[in-house]
């Protein structure tokens, strides 16, 4: 007999623990169901034990918004990674052009005149301008050519981005074998 009472008690508590769903349709009619509401109806779950109401529609919208935000973050991160990879590749291509120029003109350029900047280990003056690295490599080559064109520089020994550079105006230092130093701004180089 005790067993039957315990069994009924367990079954009753399981049935009482089941949620009830309050469904409101477009016309404003309220229906209580044991199953979740159909789509298009407001869906509120009521816990019979505690009396707590949960708005399932709101929770679903919040989950959906959270998923969309996470997807947007993921998309932005992937886009940033693609941009960084593209910048690194462009910088690598410009460095290769610099090295090709140096190898084909050993009388005009020292072997270490325009050493390539490694995007992973940039010198401190260049770190602030990492997003402009391909342009910096291109301008270093142009600065060396401009110094040679002045006829005051017999051979270029080094071309580096100078610490005087700002976001608006990059400054390059060109050291020549004659001892002459050229400080060329981005605007002067582009007027070549």
Please sum up the structure shown:
By secondary structure, the chain is α+β, with helices and mostly antiparallel strands. It has helices at 2-17, 56-104, 124-127, 133-149, 186-190; strands spanning 20-24, 30-33, 42-46, 53-55, 156-161, 171-176, 181-185.
What does this structure look like?
By secondary structure, the chain is an alpha+beta fold. The protein folds into two domains: 19-63, no CATH class; 76-190, no CATH class. Helices cover 47% and strands 18% of the residues. The chain has five helices and seven strands; from the N terminus they run H-E-E-E-E-H-H-H-E-E-E-H. The chain has helices at residues 2-17, 56-104, 124-127, 133-149, 186-190; strands spanning 20-24, 30-33, 42-46, 53-55, 156-161, 171-176, 181-185. The strands form two sheets. Strands 2-1-3-4 form a four-stranded antiparallel β-sheet. The chain has a three-stranded antiparallel β-sheet with strand order 5-6-7. A hairpin with a 6-residue loop joins strand 3 and strand 4 (53-55). Helix 2 runs parallel beside helix 4. The radius of gyration is 35 Å and the shape is rod-shaped. The mean pLDDT is 86.
